[in-house]
Amino acid sequence: RSSLQGVLAAGSSAAVPPPGFSEEARPSLLGKMPSRVASLLLLGPSVLLLCGPTIAIQLPHDLWKPPEFTEEPEEQIVVFPNDDIVLKCEATGNPAVTFRWTKDGKEFDPRKEPGVTRQNGSGTLWIVTYNGNVATKFQGIYRCYASNPLGTAMSRESRVVAENASQWPKESVSAVEVEEGDSAILPCNPPPSALSPRIYWLNSKIIHIKQNERVTMGQDGNLYFANVELSDSRPDYICNAHFLGPRIIIQKEPIELKVKPTNSFLMRKPRLMLPERMPSSHMALQGKTLTLECIPEGLPTPTVEWVYKDGLMPLNRAVIENFNRTLRIENVTEDDDGEYQCTAHNAGGYAQHTYHVTVEAAPYWTKKPVSHIYGPGENVRLPCEAYGKPRPEMEWRINGIPLRNLPPEPRRMLQRGALIISQVEPNDTAVIQCHAHNKHGSILANAYIYVVRLPAQILTPDNMSYTVVENQTAFLHCKTFGAPGPTVKWFTEDLYPALENNRTFEFTNGTLQLEQVQWDDAGSYQCLAKNDQNEVSIVAHLIVKRATKILAGPANAKVVKGGSVTFRCEAWFDDSIPKRGIKWQWEGRVIKELDDSDKYFIGNTTLTITDLDYSDEGVYTCVAWTSLDSVKKSARLLVAGLPGPVFDLELSEQQERQVKLTWTPGDDHNSPILKYYVLFEESIFDPGQWHTLTHVPGNQPWAVLHLSPYGKYRFRVQAANAYGRGNQSDSSDLYETGPAAPELNPSGVKGEGNETSNMIITWKPLSPMDWNAPEVKYHVQWRQLNEPDWNEAEAAGPPVVVTGTKTFSPYLIKVQARNQFGSGPDPEVIKGYSGEARPEATPENVGVEELNSTAIRLSWSLPNVEKIWGHLKGFKVYYTWLKPEREHSCPQPPPHGHHHQDRRDPLLVEGNVSQVVLGVFRPWTRYRIEMTVVNGKGEGPKSEATELTMLEGVPSPPDAVTMELLPNLTVNMQWKCPKYPNGEILKYGLAYHLANETEGDLIIDIPESQHSYNIAGLVPNADYKFYLWAATKAGPGEPYILEGSTVPESVLLSFENITTAEVGENFTIIRWIPQAKRRDVEFSVHIMDKTDGEPWRDLGKAISSKGVYVISDLQSGKEYRIRFVKEHRNGTNETFWEVAVETNGPERVSQKGFATEGWFIGFVSAIVLLILVLVLLCFIKRSKGGKYSVKDKEDTQVDSEARPMKDETFGEYSDNEEKPFTSSQPSLNGDIKALGSDDSLADYGGSVDVQFNEDGSFIGQYSGHKGKEGGGNDSSGATSPTNVAAALE
Question: Is 806 exposed, middle or buried (0-12, 13-18, 19+ CB in 10 A)?
Fold first, then answer.
């Protein structure tokens, strides 16, 4: 006792248990504790001593503490031969702890027992059971005691059970003989053991005996047969017991099961083989597993259902297994007490059993005693309460000695489950044991009372800062130590008691809790601790931050498998908190992007999940976090798709041609099951092929299947939801049906002849699945109409040919299916005919009624029906175009553009009709009409011809309409006859109005013979719409609509991108893009053979709206020049495009001499010219001394290049001559002459791609193969559009 005096330490008060043994302040989320705390020292198991540079407490090294167990022996240890025994016992304390053991209540000295060892400073016993030691010698109940001068701690009891190696006793196993359909039980009866073995039934090939509803193993290890089948007969049913302790498997002698066949099966209602007693009571232990079983027998095999009569089965804890034979409830609670009923039923009836379950409990703590430190003179109350069923008995001990065996002490008493000691003194220090036990077990707790006097001390460092966010709970720590226990009070910065705030609470360990922290709560708080010896204080600082918020969180989503989804999350943070961010979780686990996977894409505010699968379903959470707080919002992701396969297919209620198929539904993958499709495979006639048999609603996991005789069937089930059909299930067991007579006759029976003297009887044979037997034959009967006797024949299949018949005679036919088990139903009588002949009947009285300009009503009669000689298919109508009877100024073209007779494919009028309306004719067209009769063999002779001329119709728009702007705001329009006048043209109509107006048309009638018209008096610089139409007796036709303008335009404004699109050996194709909303321009196409030096010739007219012109009949390997020329009404011509082309292929060999060739003449001329130039240069140099004016030379070069060439000679330069490349405009009425020689493009060769701006300016350039570039004044004037783009019509 004197050794405890003067100890300076920090401790908890009598009323405040020290850390680790009583109520601790909840872990703070507000920040980390400072690292200045140097060490933690246990004062007994209940006292934390802190020592650091900021705490002025010097703790002695020899501080005592009572003993405390760190390891205790196990409650039960089962040992087998050659197993070592380890009884663990370790404890801490100061002074050092000493250990002792008892066995069966008596002292056990390890030193006196051979084979038992214990290390110094340890209480653990090591018992070696070999070398003569027998494990059974050490069976018993052991207990360990740990002591030092402050008290004695006592461990729980440990029972050591020794077992020999398990083995089955030698026995003579008799065969089990039963009759087919009866029940059977094969016993196992494994050797008893403290640890129950696992049982397996195998055959001699170490293959598991297949178990199902009919064959089941019980909890006792026996194998139960609800009814036996012949296939169950075998001599090697072997029960195997696996003992986990010694890790051995032992086998029982094989049991033979003999099944005697029988011819009479009697339905037998269910009877329970387990349990044997009815009713029965069952006791379950709380927290353990309850197992109930009902194993029935009967024929057919019974099914089992379980109900809890006192309510619903425990959710998530009740499991029905072993083919519904076993009910298992895990972690039993008192609420599981009640009645559980199993019902076995089949077609013969049912059997029931009720288990009366009572739930009891081994003792468990409701209030466990806790170690304390007290100061002298304090009162001690040590509570100890336990619950169990039956109610446990409580026993108190002090230092391992029962309280009843200690001398009476007036200061010590038991009161309402607590040990009370008044006015404690240092010598009351001891270890107290509380022991609770009932028939199901016992529990033991050690707690010490430590009486010592110590000054008050605050262990929490001074000036600690606690940072929290608004609306959080703050914990300001003030851990004290002393004896008697110091009282703790908290004050605000203004020295007001902190507990006056109704949001504050002070824990018994001194921690101040402040709930729903507000912005104004920030500041300093003071903790004051004192006892009867001293008074100390510290200051704590509270810092308040703004709370993190999620502004927009993720939303629930349902996405189809294989798709992707994006969750969004936007958060707000307090900027003064540096560590912050957003992270994503799936089912509580953090999601991270992976370098080798594109599964997740995490953005600043988004999470994208790709290639969704069902495993991606779950709750996705956005966590906005800082170092002080975090908020989260979650969304659920559902992945929808095809349903999963069903499983556990079972066949039951089997009848001759009917069976019930049941299954367990699979995963619907978040889309309700709409239907279940039942598929079948018939392996006799159609092996390997699966067909749909039936379907049932999605809420019905069973189907009654009606099957055909003589089949071997397997079934599969396929679930379907809104996304389609899922995968098929595994196949069911095989189901066979017996043979029978056919239930169907063949369909599609027909009698038709392919010759006039026969009739071929055909039918669609039965599917092999409809044979109902290994083979089928067909009984065929026929007779001529109105004859009494039937002819008959038997055939394996179609056809049956009847010969010697009359042409197209009617017959009655019957075909019936037969097999070795009988005939099919009475067959249907079908009418057939012998062969047809070509018809000789002809339509007569053919009449034509014109309904309108394109349709007629055609009528006829057929008086000679008997000459049809077959089935009347209909009539063919032949209509032939005929030339008009007289010529017309605007003739109607023939249907196919040919001016000879036009025969069209005949029209087929189906059926036995006498009139038809035909709408396939052209207006104002002359036709000849003929008809024939059609039967199955062909068509007959034509009827007499009938001619008609169709009524007039409205014409098509006028053709080849062009428009040209003339002087004085006049527009000239020209056109040709409509392509389809559809009648005599009586007149033309012309209307026009300003383009921006919709009314006020000026309508002009124009005589039929006039095909042009000048419209004068138009508004200058305005856009117009013109409408031109033709009219016949039937009325005006559709107008040709043309947009025009009185704004002067270049011809080129009607074109875009004129190019030579293709050049061949004997042709070239020129294309351009007509300008939108520009008038049509008619122009001429000229060509010149440059190779042969031929002059220009006119190829004909082209129209700008066509966009293409083809020049044919050219010669291969020659050079040509082509130009487009606009001939104006004032007589002038404008060349607005020109190009040189060279046809492909070898050049044609010329028959002329080379002296007459142009190239030879040009070559000689060039040499002569070169000589003259050299002579001239020599003369000038000699006369001027080799010097000349640079400016004169430049002027000479510019002027000579700029002026036009005349007559292919170098003419004299004149300032008075007009320069064609100046900015001045030529006269609108003047001739525009092409500039340059005819050879101006010859040096460049190839095609020319010319493009123009909207104003007609040139934006293209030449491209050639001779290395020269166009541009500047080096380009020839003839091909440059600079002049003509500015020329106005």
Answer: exposed
Sequence-distant (≥ 6) Cβ neighbours of residue 1275 within 8 angstroms: 1262
Q: How far apart are CA 423 and CA 421, in angstroms?
A: 7
Give the total residue count for the chain: 1289
Split at pLDDT 50, 70, 90, the class of 1183 is low
Kindly tell me if the per-residue pLDDT of 30 is higher than 80: no
Record the tokens describing residue 1180, joined without a space.
């000038």
Helix ranges (H only) for 1080-1136 are none
> Would you place residue 605 in the very low, low, confident or very high pLDDT band (cuts 50, 70, 90)?
very high
pLDDT bin (cut points 50, 70, 90) of residue 786 is confident
Pairing of strands 372-374, 441-451: parallel
Residue 384 neighbours by CB under 8 Å, 6+ apart: 367, 368, 369, 394, 396, 417, 418, 419, 434, 436, 445
Contact 82, 130 (CB under 8 A): yes
**Taking Cα atoms as reference points, which of 101, 93, 147, 153 lies closest to residue 126?**
101
Question: Whose CA is closest to 1030, among 944, 961, 1080, 947?
Answer: 961
> Tokens 């008050």 — which residue?
456
Task: Give the span between the Cα atoms of 551 and 528, in whole angstroms.
Answer: 43
Asked if 76 and 162 touch (Cβ cutoff 8 Å), the reply is no
Strand order in the sheet with 658-664: 647-652, 658-664, 702-706
pLDDT > 90: percent of the chain = 59
Measured CA to CA, the distance from residue 290 to residue 331 in angstroms comes to 8
Whether the upstream peptide bond of residue 390 has omega within 30° of 0, thus cis, is: yes
Q: Given this model, what pLDDT does residue 1130 score?
A: 64
Q: Burial of 1011 by CB count in 10 Å (0-12 exposed, 13-18 middle, 19+ buried)?
A: middle
CA proximity to 539, closest of 583, 502, 490 = 490
Cβ proximity of 811 and 781 under 8 Å: no
Q: What is the DSSP string of 823-844?
A: E-SPPPPEEEE----------E
CA nearest 763: which of 798, 733, 787?
798
CA distance 328 to 288: 11
Taking residue 1060's Cβ as centre, other Cβ atoms within 10 Å add up to: 18
- pLDDT computed for residue 830 by the predictor: 94
Of the candidates 402, 405, 404, 412, the one whose C-alpha atom is nearest the C-alpha of residue 449 is 412
Q: Which residues contact 472 (CB under 8 A, 6 or more apart)?
A: 29, 30, 517, 547, 628, 629
Give SS3 for 154: strand
- CA-based nearest residue to 844, from 770, 912, 944, 935: 944
Query: Other C-beta atoms within 10 Å of 176: how many?
Result: 17
Structure tokens given for 1141: 């082309």
pLDDT value of residue 482: 81
Q: Which two tokens stand for residue 1185?
A: 């001394």
User: Could you report the per-residue pLDDT of 1240-1252, keeping only the tens digit for each?
Assistant: 333 333 333 333 3
Instruction: Note the pLDDT of residue 1078.
Output: 64
